[in-house]
Amino acid sequence: MHPAHFLFSVFSIIAIDLLLAGDNALVIAMAVRALPRRQRRIGGACGAAAAVVLRVVLTFFTAEVLGIRYVQLAGGLFILWIAVKVLVDASDPPDAAPAPKRLLQAVWYIVVADLTMSTDNILAIAGASKGSLELIVFGLCVSIPLVVFSANLIADLMDRYPVTIYLGTAILGKVGAEMILTDPFIVRTLDPSATVRYAVEAVMAVGLIAGGKLICRMRERAA
Q1: What phi, psi does 81 have (nearest 5°)?
Q2: Which of 8, 78, 94, 197 has its CA 20 to 30 A from that of 40?
């Protein structure tokens, strides 16, 4: 590859990471929110690193995977489940569960959610790299410090302003609903219009917050 083209591809990949890393950083922030402060960086870094390794492999199969019915549907449902679970976990006191269990749980959330939400990032990087394995690996590795740094800032913001936890849940609800409604099976079967998609995304965002708060209250009464 010509040096000028190589440098242009590098800058393109960095720009892509900056533009598309927001939702991933939000997932990590919410997943590590319940961890002790000193373990947040460990959990975020481990989860992001594991997800990037898997992304390198999946980059070569993303186009085929996205065409398979139920893949985005399952991913969207998992994102919705994570949003509610993280919201409920965040309401628990820090010592409600052993630290090792919380850490492993957070890493698991990060890896699965990152992979299900990163199809746009993977496709964009694959296109900008022009098939160069070195550029693909570079682009995906750049996202580790970028996403982890952003996630820690968001997690600290959630500590200072707890209301942002609900905002994050609403955003994940919107993302999960969007993934479900763009699944090939849903598109071919229901063919939802843009208006319907926006309405469902809004309802899901509000519904997740209401459902999460209801579960929290039920757990408090049971306790």
Answers
A1: -65, -45
A2: 78
CA angle 74, 208, 58 (to 5 degrees): 30
The residue assigned the tokens 């927001």 is: 22
Q: What share of the chain is helix, strand, coil (3-state, %, to 5)?
A: 85, 0, 15
Kindly report the backbone phi and psi dihedral angles of residue 28, in degrees, each rounded to the nearest multiple of 5, phi listed first: -60, -45
Question: How many Cα atoms occupy the beta-carbon half-sphere of 51 within 13 Å?
Answer: 33
- Confidence class of residue 183 from pLDDT cuts 50, 70 and 90? confident
SS3 214: helix
d(CA 140, CA 160): 31
Indicate if the alpha-carbon torsion angle 51, 9, 62, 122 is positive or negative: positive
Per-residue model confidence as pLDDT tens digits over 100-153: 567 787 777 777 777 666 666 666 666 666 667 777 677 767 766 777 777 778
* CA–CA distance, 216 with 196 (Å, rounded to integer): 30
Between the ranges 17-31, 63-77, 178-192, 208-222, where is the mean pLDDT highest? 178-192
